[in-house]
Amino acid sequence: xxxxxxxxxxxxxxxxxxxxxxxxxxxxxxxxxxxxxxxxxxxxxxxxxxxxxxxxxxxxxxxxxxxxxxxxxxxxxxxxxxxxxxxxxxxxxxxxxxxxxxxxxxxxxxxxxxxxxxxxxxxxxxxxxxxxxxxxxxxxxxxxxxxxxxxxxxxxxxxxxxxxxxxxxxxxxxxxxxxxxxxxxxxxxxxxxxxxxxxxxxxxxxxxxxxxxxxxxxxxxxxxxxxxxxxxxxxxxxxxxxxxxxxxxxxxxxxxxxxxxxxx
Amino acid sequence: xxxxxxxxxxxxxxxxxxxxxxxxxxxxxxxxxxxxxxxxxxxxxxxxxxxxxxxxxxxxxxxxxxxxxxxxxxxxxxxxxxxxxxxxxxxxxxxxxxxxxxxxxxxxxxxxxxxxxxxxxxxxxxxxxxxxxxxxxxxxxxxxxxxxxxxxxxxxxxxxxxxxxxxxxxxxxxxxxxxxxxxxxxxxxxxxxxxxxxxxxxxxxxxxxxxxxxxxxxxxxxxxxxxxxxxxxxxxxxxxxxxxxxxxxxxxxxxxxxxxxxxxxxxxxxxxxxxxxxxxxxxxxxxxxxxxxxxxxxxxxxxxxxxxxxxxxxxxxxxxxxxxxxxxxxxxxxxxxxxxxxxxxxxxxxxxxxxxxxxxxxxxxxxxxxxxxxxxxxxxxxxxxxxxxxxxxxxxxxxxxxxxxxxxxxxxxxxxxxxxxxxxxxxxxxxxxxxxxxxxx
Lengths: 264, 441
Known about the structure:
By secondary structure, chain A is mainly α. Chain A is 77% helix and 0% strand.
């Protein structure tokens, strides 16, 4: 497994080229092109903001202001997470021709999905900055230093799950459908459209088992909640958990690797 | 020092039972059979203990029927998939031309695809940049390299794929039946490129159905059949052994087709046993001649069996063009006859008579026909072009009224290494004088 990981390093250039290709190919032949990377999260945000501030303003505590920013701090990373996993579920099957005909490490494909998602996530950040300035949110610089770490932990967690999902889907195509529903459940089981403080004690315990809860809370802490960053220990715990998930995912992928060429 | 060493390689493909085909994760969990379903119900052994070596710098050909395990072997050598048991060792950088342009993305330009494809094949960015012009020139795509690949014709697509793969400049190049990708000119370029690799001491492994290519190009050949090495060594010898085997199978298939599905007819049995004994007992006409509408006559005399004997001395349905062939007719007279003649005719599949003659035309004068006898028409060189032919045979009165006429009841096939056209091949020779030089004729 470690040998596989080292081998993978040699394919850095391929991974970065494939990510670039992914982004280019996605928006080629669309009028707005790369602008969609900004427009997509913005539109999503507008919808959520409309629902929670106009349709049912009582659904969240009034002190949670500006609510749009609170939503955005959670939805942006979640979109990265869920779209990466959904794409990973398909990526080995869609790339079946490659896996059967060309010798290269197959994990490149799910990793590219996750990294392409990361790039989209980064495209969404300027919008976030605009929000922060518009609402004149005081963000401490020391808080912002945590931000890349949170992103890194999310990257490790997402990659681990993406490897697992992509490898399993080759054997059980059901994983795709299962995953779509699971992600919906997961979204609501993460404090993104509600603050974790609003959840009753018993439920909160369950939510705390969800690693993405801590990531979402950490994002909110950095970007939304005033005051110094308080999630250090939680972040450490979720970082370790993510590393474990990554190794499990990579281990499963590595074990199933030889079956891909025959099964896709 | 060998570039490729294959030792006792077995490859099993798992074949799941019918149940698994429709099984889902849900049903697997519900029936508690997740783990069981991950185990195969049956296996298919694509390679059964294959061993061979390819010496460094040699060009090696693998031939065999479809499904003989050729491509599986190639994939194992390429490292796509692992042998179930045994070892495959390859020395140096491998590039496999298994499917050209497998990694191309239709939406982006040829240029970007060249880079990505090259990276996939193990080149670095700098190496690709250095070879880029050569790749594009080789693919003849100078004008289109910045257009998205989806606008390419299939030929352009393949050419680009080939150009990238061959410019990886591998130590070992694996080629799976991909040389027929372009027009004639491009195929020649590919062959030139292969020859060039060879000159530079690279090892080339060719999997192909083009036997001609193997005899012309390879230093050594391997014939795989049903996952087993049937022959290995000098290409000409291996190819001939393979061709003979193909002919034997084709013969059997033709014999079966002619005799219909019900029961192996006697004549077929004779072919299978390889017995030179043509007389296979008194044949039952009902069995022998299924296509009754193709046979008519008053039956004062009958043709009871027909066989074509090739150079092998045995009844066959498949001959080389120019081979010495005998048509043998077993004849039985049901009464004493004085007015009779024998005739044969050869027709192609369009029904054109390629040749016909009878004892009368050839100047024979009928004497007497009593009881049984054998008629042999020996053709020193059956110089027909490649194709399938039908045979007419007859015994008839001298005025043409048939006693027994078999109309196109017998099928045979002519194969030829030369792909000339028409109906027959007159023996011919080319010669040149003046400022004309052509060699190889």
